[in-house]
Amino acid sequence: MEKREELYSGKAKSVFKTDDADLLILEFRDDTSAFDGKKKEQLDRKGKVNNIFNAFIMEKLKEAGIPTHFEKRLNDREALVKCMKMLPVECVVRNISAGSLCKRLGVEEGQTLNPPTYELFLKNDAQGDPMINEALAITFGWATEDQLKEMKRLTYEVNGVLQRLFADAGLLLVDYKLEFGDFHGQITLGDEFSPDGCRLWDAKTREKLDKDRFRQGLGGVVEAYEEVGRRLGIQFD
């Protein structure tokens, strides 16, 4: 597999073309940002840890029958993924109240949400990734009705798989975001799943073991990611 020119560079990952039009190389960097890029930092080992963590989760989802763009981990920082037409809509599931939900609605952090909430956000940094609904997504051509229906179905399937996985490791899956794309007509899970894009708490102490440690200046960000991985049985070295 030949790595070619860079196609895209995001906040924490870079995407490269390959000699196969259907495949890309996803590179995980040590860059970390929060609050729409207003807070930035480089955290040693973060790219490696997220790449290995993501590979583990994607394999678990594939085993559960969920279509993902993940093909294989190439090395410590790179993964081979399918080349998809990404949809500019983020799907967010919240199992426990935290973050922007508490600020937006004035509810207390830590409330179990039954049933879990499901929200859509437009991927648009300039606009602060605004919350949208299905009607808006369809009207402006961000996704079709059928695509949205399949994205929602898959997002809830992911929730069931990962809630059980994390619970067995003594962790609470508080909330998370997923991104999807179209791969030859099939809605397929893309991007990554790591503590960068979800909230994970210790089930007993409710200690935060995710990117909130960076947002809130708690320190030990990568160490927390590694702790989550170890509980899941992931080897980082």
TrEMBL record:
Question: Gene3D superfamilies from the entry?
Answer: ATP-grasp fold, B domain, Phosphorylase Kinase, domain 1
Which terms under GO biological process does the entry name? 'de novo' IMP biosynthetic process; cobalamin biosynthetic process
Gene Ontology cellular-component terms for this entry are: cytosol
The record's Pfam families line, in alphabetical order, gives: SAICAR_synt
Q: In which pathway does it act?
A: Purine metabolism; IMP biosynthesis via de novo pathway; 5-amino-1-(5-phospho-D-ribosyl)imidazole-4-carboxamide from 5-amino-1-(5-phospho-D-ribosyl)imidazole-4-carboxylate: step 1/2
Q: Where in the numbering of this chain does the SAICAR synthetase/ADE2 N-terminal domain appear?
A: 7-231
List the EC numbers from the record: 6.3.2.6
Q: Which reaction does it catalyse?
A: 5-amino-1-(5-phospho-D-ribosyl)imidazole-4-carboxylate + L-aspartate + ATP = (2S)-2-[5-amino-1-(5-phospho-beta-D-ribosyl)imidazole-4-carboxamido]succinate + ADP + phosphate + 2 H(+)
Give UniProt keywords alphabetically: ATP-binding, Ligase, Nucleotide-binding, Purine biosynthesis
Report the top EC class in one word: ligase
Tell me the organism's taxonomic lineage: Bacteria, Pseudomonadati, Pseudomonadota, Gammaproteobacteria, Oceanospirillales
- UniProt family annotation: Belongs to the SAICAR synthetase family.
* Matching NCBIfam families: purC
Q: Which organism was this protein described from?
A: Marinospirillum celere
What is the recorded name of this protein?
Phosphoribosylaminoimidazole-succinocarboxamide synthase
